[in-house]
Request: fold
Amino acid sequence: MIDTALTISNSLALTEEQYKTIETMAGINYGPREIALLLDLDLNALLSDFQNPNSKVYHHYKKGVLAADFEVDKMFLERVEAGNITAGQEYKKASEKRRFENHKKRILNE
Reply:
């Protein structure tokens, strides 16, 4: 595992509770504007960090999205393993989409 603690900037100096809120909101598809409003943050400052891949805001936002996607995929896998045909089709479609997105990111160096 890569130690990113030294390379991630924390220009907004948010609390761990605020970062957890960012993760939760990201996981349920809220964007930076809604997050700034809920946390009473300056929108421009949040957007600046949100667009910086080396910021803690970016890190926690992406982590929230990934954690939510993981939980959904895990649920699909459990349903597939239990023999649910529809879940199998949905899981396959989601997996193909993720593979496509990962391939696109590799090509675009994201």
The longest helix spans residues 56-81.
